[in-house]
Sequence to fold (216 residues):
Amino acid sequence: MKIHHLGEKNSIFNTFIAEMRNVQIQKDAARFRRNMERVGEIFAYEISKSLEYETQEVQTPLGIANCNLPVDNVVVASILRAGIPLHNGVLNYFDKAQNAFIAAYRKYGKDNKFTIQMEYMAAPGIQDKVLILVDPMLATGSSLVLTYEALLQKGKPKHCHIVSTIASKEGVAFLSRQLPAKGVTLWLGAVDEEMTLKSFIVPGLGDAGDLAYGEK
Fold:
């Protein structure tokens, strides 16, 4: 599995990550959502460089322009509800993409142990399409693996790009073990070293869904 860590290089991208982490700026939910959307737009731009292109003629008022345009069919998928702002950011750049939505959550038992429960999936066929699966927080990686496997019921994608704004080191290692070595690329904004007993990333940014849409 290829891994791209965008936060390792200095760019305005890191400003958006920093503002999403900032406990004071987080009080503005609209700004949090917009920053997550901006991050999604940057991820989408970087992913676009890996697509297949062909030259097409475009009629201008003064003549014909030869333009290299992407020809891949793209499907953007997200895990509700936290994934919606990141999904929208990616969709802003892939405006012709189809969309998939998955409802999954952690069901806690004793000793802070949990299982991932999936209750709903709405998705088009993904056979031979480019799948972009977004989830803002990659903690244990369990929900992403479960979602990826569920989406394979809709076909085998040409390539799968997994996008996470902030990941734990443990989660990245888990995905590397569980997902195919070929045909999958992981895109990350930041990688943090620790997780709490309840598997929340430290320092992380908190609960992305609550910050975007209010407490459950």
